[in-house]
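User: Can you predict the 3D structure for this chain?
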Amino acid sequence: MTDQAVSLRLFHPRLFALRKRLALRLTVIAMTALLLIPVCATVALGIGVLGAYGAWSIFGAEWPVAGFFLGAMSFTAMGFVAVRLFSVLFVPLPSPVGVRLSPEDACDLHRLVEGIGWVLEAGRVDHIWVTQETNAAILQRPCLGVFGRIETHLLVGLPLMHSLTCPQLMAVLAHELAHLTAQRKGAGKYGALLRAWLLRALDRIGDVLPTIGAQADWWLGRFYSNMVRLTRIEEFEADAQATKVVNADLLGETMIEVSLKEQFLSRDYWPRVLAQSSVRAKPLVRPFRDLCLGMTAGFLRHAAMDDDVMSSKPSTQSMHPTIRERLSALRVSPIPSSGYLPTAANHYLSPLLLTLAWVFDRAWWQDARLDWQLTYRAACREHRRKHGQ
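Assistant: Here is the predicted structure, written as structure tokens:
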């Protein structure tokens, strides 16, 4: 028996059978709730029509102005509620944000994804995107916005690729594509889209009709808790499926490495970049262009391991399991990477790195420029005030 097969046996099969039943139950609830929203909107509109007719029947003969005014108010109020309820069903799906890589631009990366998909029987990945985030994700979207064939998008963050070696990136991609294998194939992908659609609609109801939104949240409290439960189980299942491609030790090492590098970027690298705003009108460092150098020069592995990456306690309210929980399920020890090998970004994106960095630096500066300039001006005023005294 192979190491991968042994790793798969370590996960309790009842957990994954529970995931299928839970996903089906939540999909039925989501479908029912989505059908109830237009029904409630139609009922509200009907109440408005009946209210207008009743007001005119009671007051129209003797006080036509009062009857018309009361009828118009009733119809307008309930019509407003009906239109608002209908509108929550048309919240657009968020589109992938980043730079799409064609097979000609990154042929090795596309071959890697195709190979992992073939081993996992994950199906086709239509598009690969490089993003500004320190993570990877799978998105499935209808090609025509709401209708049409479901297209699969793989999003991989440039900071993530600068953080990992090639084998570690393979482990990350295996985990993401494992979601397709276990949970997003066939009817499963439509169920996931329905559940996501309901969550967007409920979030929109809370914005446009807060009273109805609060009542809906109270009614669907168990639905929310079960969605969290489903997400956590899906993470464990994806880890189990990923061991068909990489061994459990490499998967555990990659989890720790991603957490260490993400912590370094959020607590050290980006604060240092933004700290320039108190002394410079424009940044001296281009954060994405200099990301690899900053990672190499600034990241101290031993100091990072002394931090609290592994100290977080399990929480049933967290959307994702902690690293400790995932490592425990894999039956591996928390051993970080020991060497400094070439990064996955240098291997798979070498001809494109400068172009990608320029695109992301430009987008980052457009978003950060206003806050940066406000901070710089405030620092200049404080400096003049101190020296003026």
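DSSP finds 15 helices and four strands in the chain. The two ends are 78 Å apart (CA to CA).
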